[in-house]
Input
Amino acid sequence: MRIETRLTAMTALSFAVAALIAGLLSYRVEIGQARAEVNAKAEVLISAAAAIRHYTSDQVTPLVADITGPAFLPQQVPAFAAQTTMLHLRDSYPQFQYREASINPTNTSDRASDWEAGLMSQLRNDATLKELVGEHGSGKSARFFVARPLRVESAACLRCHSVPDAAPHSMLTKYGAANGFGWQVGDIVALQIVEVPTAPSRQKAFNSVTVTVGSIAATFALIQVLLSFLIRQQITRPLGVLSRTARALSLGQSVSQADQVALPREFDEVRDGLNRLANSVALARELGGADRTSPEGKAD
Ligand code: HEC
Output
Protein backbone atom coordinates (compact mmCIF):
# COMPACT_ATOMS: atom_id res chain seq x y z
CA MET A 1 0.00 0.00 0.00
CA ARG A 2 1.31 3.49 -0.81
CA ILE A 3 2.52 5.65 2.11
CA GLU A 4 0.05 8.35 1.15
CA THR A 5 -2.91 5.96 1.17
CA ARG A 6 -1.81 4.37 4.43
CA LEU A 7 -1.30 7.70 6.24
CA THR A 8 -4.57 9.07 4.88
CA ALA A 9 -6.45 5.95 6.00
CA MET A 10 -4.89 6.07 9.47
CA THR A 11 -5.61 9.75 10.08
CA ALA A 12 -9.16 9.40 8.67
CA LEU A 13 -9.78 6.46 11.01
CA SER A 14 -8.48 8.28 14.08
CA PHE A 15 -10.51 11.37 13.15
CA ALA A 16 -13.65 9.25 12.77
CA VAL A 17 -13.08 7.61 16.17
CA ALA A 18 -12.43 11.02 17.77
CA ALA A 19 -15.63 12.47 16.21
CA LEU A 20 -17.62 9.44 17.42
CA ILE A 21 -16.33 9.76 20.98
CA ALA A 22 -16.98 13.52 20.97
CA GLY A 23 -20.51 12.83 19.65
CA LEU A 24 -21.31 10.27 22.34
CA LEU A 25 -19.90 12.42 25.13
CA SER A 26 -21.70 15.53 23.98
CA TYR A 27 -24.98 13.59 23.63
CA ARG A 28 -24.67 12.42 27.23
CA VAL A 29 -23.92 15.94 28.43
CA GLU A 30 -26.75 17.43 26.36
CA ILE A 31 -29.37 14.92 27.47
CA GLY A 32 -28.25 15.36 31.08
CA GLN A 33 -28.64 19.11 30.77
CA ALA A 34 -32.03 18.79 29.07
CA ARG A 35 -33.18 16.52 31.88
CA ALA A 36 -31.90 18.88 34.55
CA GLU A 37 -33.69 21.77 32.82
CA VAL A 38 -36.98 19.86 32.61
CA ASN A 39 -36.64 18.76 36.24
CA ALA A 40 -36.01 22.30 37.39
CA LYS A 41 -39.13 23.53 35.56
CA ALA A 42 -41.21 20.61 36.82
CA GLU A 43 -40.17 21.36 40.39
CA VAL A 44 -41.18 24.99 39.99
CA LEU A 45 -44.57 23.85 38.66
CA ILE A 46 -45.12 21.43 41.53
CA SER A 47 -44.19 24.14 44.03
CA ALA A 48 -46.53 26.57 42.25
CA ALA A 49 -49.35 24.01 42.45
CA ALA A 50 -48.61 23.47 46.14
CA ALA A 51 -48.70 27.24 46.67
CA ILE A 52 -52.07 27.46 44.91
CA ARG A 53 -53.35 24.64 47.14
CA HIS A 54 -52.19 26.48 50.26
CA TYR A 55 -53.63 29.78 49.14
CA THR A 56 -56.97 28.17 48.34
CA SER A 57 -57.23 26.24 51.56
CA ASP A 58 -56.07 29.19 53.71
CA GLN A 59 -57.92 32.02 51.98
CA VAL A 60 -60.62 30.77 49.66
CA THR A 61 -62.12 27.68 51.29
CA PRO A 62 -63.14 29.38 54.58
CA LEU A 63 -64.44 32.43 52.74
CA VAL A 64 -66.52 30.50 50.21
CA ALA A 65 -67.82 28.19 52.92
CA ASP A 66 -68.97 31.24 54.89
CA ILE A 67 -70.67 32.80 51.89
CA THR A 68 -72.28 29.73 50.39
CA GLY A 69 -73.25 27.94 53.61
CA PRO A 70 -74.16 24.32 52.98
CA ALA A 71 -74.04 24.76 49.19
CA PHE A 72 -70.88 23.40 47.66
CA LEU A 73 -68.72 25.13 45.06
CA PRO A 74 -65.71 23.24 43.66
CA GLN A 75 -63.81 26.56 43.42
CA GLN A 76 -63.15 26.32 47.15
CA VAL A 77 -61.40 22.95 46.76
CA PRO A 78 -57.55 23.21 46.82
CA ALA A 79 -57.14 20.27 44.43
CA PHE A 80 -59.64 21.80 42.02
CA ALA A 81 -57.91 25.22 42.15
CA ALA A 82 -54.42 23.75 41.60
CA GLN A 83 -55.42 21.39 38.80
CA THR A 84 -57.56 23.98 37.00
CA THR A 85 -54.79 26.60 37.17
CA MET A 86 -52.22 24.11 35.89
CA LEU A 87 -54.59 23.25 33.06
CA HIS A 88 -54.61 26.96 32.07
CA LEU A 89 -50.82 26.97 32.28
CA ARG A 90 -50.76 24.32 29.57
CA ASP A 91 -51.82 27.04 27.12
CA SER A 92 -48.28 28.41 27.47
CA TYR A 93 -46.47 25.17 28.38
CA PRO A 94 -48.41 22.44 26.57
CA GLN A 95 -45.75 19.82 27.25
CA PHE A 96 -46.11 20.02 31.05
CA GLN A 97 -48.85 17.87 32.50
CA TYR A 98 -49.80 18.24 36.16
CA ARG A 99 -51.89 15.76 38.09
CA GLU A 100 -52.92 14.98 41.60
CA ALA A 101 -53.33 11.22 41.62
CA SER A 102 -54.83 9.27 44.49
CA ILE A 103 -55.69 5.62 45.03
CA ASN A 104 -58.84 6.76 46.88
CA PRO A 105 -59.84 9.85 44.89
CA THR A 106 -62.86 12.12 45.35
CA ASN A 107 -62.97 12.75 41.64
CA THR A 108 -62.53 9.41 39.86
CA SER A 109 -60.59 11.09 37.05
CA ASP A 110 -57.83 11.58 39.67
CA ARG A 111 -57.51 7.82 40.19
CA ALA A 112 -53.86 6.73 40.24
CA SER A 113 -52.69 4.34 37.53
CA ASP A 114 -50.78 1.21 38.60
CA TRP A 115 -47.52 3.02 37.94
CA GLU A 116 -48.59 6.05 39.99
CA ALA A 117 -49.80 3.76 42.78
CA GLY A 118 -46.32 2.13 42.76
CA LEU A 119 -44.66 5.57 43.15
CA MET A 120 -47.03 6.36 45.97
CA SER A 121 -46.22 3.21 47.91
CA GLN A 122 -42.49 3.96 47.48
CA LEU A 123 -43.07 7.41 49.00
CA ARG A 124 -45.26 5.98 51.76
CA ASN A 125 -42.67 3.32 52.67
CA ASP A 126 -39.78 5.74 52.92
CA ALA A 127 -40.66 8.92 54.78
CA THR A 128 -37.23 10.41 53.99
CA LEU A 129 -38.06 10.54 50.28
CA LYS A 130 -39.12 14.08 49.42
CA GLU A 131 -39.68 13.37 45.74
CA LEU A 132 -39.15 10.84 42.99
CA VAL A 133 -37.55 11.88 39.73
CA GLY A 134 -37.09 9.72 36.67
CA GLU A 135 -38.14 8.57 33.25
CA HIS A 136 -41.20 6.51 32.46
CA GLY A 137 -42.34 4.63 29.37
CA SER A 138 -40.44 4.07 26.16
CA GLY A 139 -40.32 5.30 22.58
CA LYS A 140 -42.65 8.16 21.71
CA SER A 141 -44.58 7.93 24.99
CA ALA A 142 -41.43 8.22 27.18
CA ARG A 143 -41.70 10.96 29.79
CA PHE A 144 -39.63 12.64 32.44
CA PHE A 145 -41.48 12.89 35.72
CA VAL A 146 -41.17 14.52 39.11
CA ALA A 147 -43.51 13.23 41.81
CA ARG A 148 -44.01 14.52 45.35
CA PRO A 149 -46.15 13.09 48.13
CA LEU A 150 -49.30 15.03 48.99
CA ARG A 151 -49.98 14.85 52.68
CA VAL A 152 -53.06 15.86 54.68
CA GLU A 153 -51.46 18.59 56.73
CA SER A 154 -54.45 20.17 58.40
CA ALA A 155 -57.66 19.09 60.01
CA ALA A 156 -59.47 21.53 57.69
CA CYS A 157 -59.11 18.95 54.92
CA LEU A 158 -61.07 16.43 56.95
CA ARG A 159 -64.32 18.36 56.55
CA CYS A 160 -64.56 16.93 53.05
CA HIS A 161 -62.31 13.88 53.32
CA SER A 162 -63.03 12.20 56.69
CA VAL A 163 -66.56 10.78 56.56
CA PRO A 164 -69.33 11.55 54.06
CA ASP A 165 -71.58 12.88 56.86
CA ALA A 166 -69.11 15.70 57.59
CA ALA A 167 -68.91 16.78 53.93
CA PRO A 168 -71.22 19.34 52.32
CA HIS A 169 -74.31 17.56 51.10
CA SER A 170 -74.14 19.09 47.62
CA MET A 171 -70.56 17.81 47.29
CA LEU A 172 -71.83 14.28 47.87
CA THR A 173 -74.48 14.83 45.21
CA LYS A 174 -71.76 15.67 42.71
CA TYR A 175 -68.97 13.25 43.70
CA GLY A 176 -70.80 10.51 45.62
CA ALA A 177 -69.93 9.15 49.04
CA ALA A 178 -67.87 6.17 47.94
CA ASN A 179 -64.43 7.73 47.35
CA GLY A 180 -62.13 10.33 48.84
CA PHE A 181 -63.02 9.64 52.47
CA GLY A 182 -61.33 7.98 55.42
CA TRP A 183 -58.26 10.19 55.21
CA GLN A 184 -56.35 11.23 58.34
CA VAL A 185 -54.01 14.07 59.20
CA GLY A 186 -50.44 13.04 58.30
CA ASP A 187 -51.55 10.51 55.64
CA ILE A 188 -49.97 10.62 52.20
CA VAL A 189 -53.22 10.62 50.23
CA ALA A 190 -52.05 11.51 46.75
CA LEU A 191 -49.15 12.32 44.45
CA GLN A 192 -48.41 15.66 42.87
CA ILE A 193 -46.89 14.64 39.61
CA VAL A 194 -45.56 16.60 36.64
CA GLU A 195 -44.78 14.75 33.43
CA VAL A 196 -43.00 16.03 30.35
CA PRO A 197 -42.45 14.12 27.10
CA THR A 198 -38.77 13.25 26.60
CA ALA A 199 -38.90 13.29 22.79
CA PRO A 200 -38.44 17.09 22.32
CA SER A 201 -35.47 17.13 24.74
CA ARG A 202 -33.92 14.16 22.98
CA GLN A 203 -34.48 15.81 19.62
CA LYS A 204 -32.87 19.02 20.91
CA ALA A 205 -29.90 17.10 22.30
CA PHE A 206 -29.60 15.17 19.03
CA ASN A 207 -29.69 18.39 16.97
CA SER A 208 -26.97 20.02 18.99
CA VAL A 209 -24.85 16.83 18.81
CA THR A 210 -25.32 16.86 15.03
CA VAL A 211 -24.01 20.42 14.94
CA THR A 212 -21.03 19.53 17.19
CA VAL A 213 -20.11 16.37 15.28
CA GLY A 214 -20.78 18.11 11.96
CA SER A 215 -18.37 20.93 12.73
CA ILE A 216 -15.74 18.54 14.09
CA ALA A 217 -16.09 16.39 10.96
CA ALA A 218 -15.81 19.45 8.70
CA THR A 219 -12.65 20.58 10.56
CA PHE A 220 -11.17 17.10 10.32
CA ALA A 221 -12.03 16.86 6.62
CA LEU A 222 -10.22 20.14 6.02
CA ILE A 223 -7.20 18.97 8.02
CA GLN A 224 -7.30 15.68 6.10
CA VAL A 225 -7.22 17.45 2.72
CA LEU A 226 -4.36 19.66 3.90
CA LEU A 227 -2.47 16.67 5.30
CA SER A 228 -2.86 14.68 2.07
CA PHE A 229 -1.61 17.65 0.08
CA LEU A 230 1.37 18.11 2.41
CA ILE A 231 2.21 14.39 2.42
CA ARG A 232 2.16 14.37 -1.37
CA GLN A 233 4.20 17.58 -1.63
CA GLN A 234 6.69 16.92 1.14
CA ILE A 235 7.08 13.14 1.17
CA THR A 236 5.74 11.09 -1.73
CA ARG A 237 6.77 13.44 -4.54
CA PRO A 238 10.37 13.90 -3.24
CA LEU A 239 10.60 10.14 -2.62
CA GLY A 240 9.54 9.57 -6.25
CA VAL A 241 12.23 11.97 -7.44
CA LEU A 242 14.81 10.21 -5.25
CA SER A 243 13.89 6.74 -6.42
CA ARG A 244 14.01 7.77 -10.11
CA THR A 245 17.34 9.54 -9.46
CA ALA A 246 18.76 6.46 -7.72
CA ARG A 247 17.55 4.26 -10.59
CA ALA A 248 19.08 6.52 -13.24
CA LEU A 249 22.38 6.81 -11.37
CA SER A 250 22.59 3.08 -10.74
CA LEU A 251 22.12 2.43 -14.45
CA GLY A 252 24.70 5.07 -15.29
CA GLN A 253 22.07 7.18 -17.05
CA SER A 254 21.65 10.91 -16.60
CA VAL A 255 18.88 12.15 -14.30
CA SER A 256 15.95 13.54 -16.27
CA GLN A 257 15.43 17.31 -16.35
CA ALA A 258 12.03 16.96 -14.63
CA ASP A 259 13.65 15.32 -11.61
CA GLN A 260 16.24 18.05 -11.13
CA VAL A 261 13.90 20.08 -8.98
CA ALA A 262 14.31 21.58 -5.52
CA LEU A 263 13.39 19.14 -2.75
CA PRO A 264 12.85 19.56 1.03
CA ARG A 265 16.25 19.77 2.72
CA GLU A 266 16.40 16.24 4.14
CA PHE A 267 15.63 14.74 0.72
CA ASP A 268 18.12 17.11 -0.93
CA GLU A 269 20.80 15.76 1.37
CA VAL A 270 19.92 12.18 0.40
CA ARG A 271 20.07 13.19 -3.28
CA ASP A 272 23.51 14.78 -2.73
CA GLY A 273 24.57 11.57 -1.03
CA LEU A 274 23.32 9.52 -3.97
CA ASN A 275 25.21 11.77 -6.40
CA ARG A 276 28.39 11.46 -4.35
CA LEU A 277 27.96 7.72 -4.18
CA ALA A 278 27.45 7.51 -7.92
CA ASN A 279 30.53 9.68 -8.51
CA SER A 280 32.66 7.54 -6.17
CA VAL A 281 31.45 4.39 -7.86
CA ALA A 282 32.27 5.90 -11.26
CA LEU A 283 35.68 6.98 -10.02
CA ALA A 284 36.35 3.58 -8.48
CA ARG A 285 35.33 1.97 -11.73
CA GLU A 286 37.67 4.25 -13.70
CA LEU A 287 40.54 3.63 -11.30
CA GLY A 288 39.84 -0.08 -11.26
CA GLY A 289 39.82 -0.05 -15.07
CA ALA A 290 43.18 1.79 -15.16
CA ASP A 291 44.67 -0.63 -12.64
CA ARG A 292 43.47 -3.57 -14.63
CA THR A 293 44.66 -2.20 -18.00
CA SER A 294 48.17 -1.13 -16.96
CA PRO A 295 49.53 -4.53 -15.83
CA GLU A 296 47.93 -6.09 -18.92
CA GLY A 297 49.55 -3.30 -21.01
CA LYS A 298 52.87 -4.00 -19.31
CA ALA A 299 52.50 -7.67 -20.08
CA ASP A 300 51.88 -6.79 -23.70
C1 HEC B 1 -64.69 21.80 50.67
C2 HEC B 1 -64.33 20.42 50.59
C3 HEC B 1 -62.89 20.08 50.48
C4 HEC B 1 -61.88 20.49 51.28
C5 HEC B 1 -61.91 21.43 52.47
C6 HEC B 1 -60.70 19.81 50.78
N1 HEC B 1 -61.01 19.02 49.72
FE1 HEC B 1 -59.77 17.87 48.71
N2 HEC B 1 -61.18 17.56 47.32
C7 HEC B 1 -62.48 17.94 47.43
C8 HEC B 1 -63.17 17.68 46.19
C9 HEC B 1 -64.61 17.96 45.87
C10 HEC B 1 -62.21 17.13 45.33
C11 HEC B 1 -62.38 16.75 43.87
C12 HEC B 1 -62.02 17.97 43.06
C13 HEC B 1 -62.05 17.76 41.56
O1 HEC B 1 -63.14 17.64 41.00
O2 HEC B 1 -60.97 17.74 40.99
C14 HEC B 1 -60.97 17.06 46.08
C15 HEC B 1 -59.80 16.55 45.57
C16 HEC B 1 -58.66 16.38 46.32
C17 HEC B 1 -57.47 15.76 45.85
C18 HEC B 1 -57.23 15.18 44.47
C19 HEC B 1 -57.53 13.73 44.43
C20 HEC B 1 -58.98 13.44 44.52
O3 HEC B 1 -59.39 13.07 45.63
O4 HEC B 1 -59.70 13.67 43.53
C21 HEC B 1 -56.58 15.79 46.86
C22 HEC B 1 -55.17 15.23 46.85
C23 HEC B 1 -57.20 16.49 47.95
N3 HEC B 1 -58.45 16.85 47.59
C24 HEC B 1 -56.58 16.76 49.11
C25 HEC B 1 -57.08 17.69 50.01
C26 HEC B 1 -56.31 18.25 51.08
C27 HEC B 1 -54.88 17.85 51.44
C28 HEC B 1 -57.08 19.17 51.69
C29 HEC B 1 -56.70 20.07 52.81
C30 HEC B 1 -55.68 21.05 52.53
C31 HEC B 1 -58.35 19.16 50.98
N4 HEC B 1 -58.31 18.25 49.98
C32 HEC B 1 -59.42 19.95 51.32
C33 HEC B 1 -63.06 18.53 48.51
C34 HEC B 1 -62.35 19.17 49.51
The pocket of heme C is lined by residues 57, 61, 74, 76-80, 83, 100, 102, 105-107, 110, 150, 152, 154, 156-157, 159-161, 171, 175, 180, 189-190 (CB under 6 Å). The radius of gyration is 42 Å. Residues 296-300 have pLDDT under 50 and may be disordered.
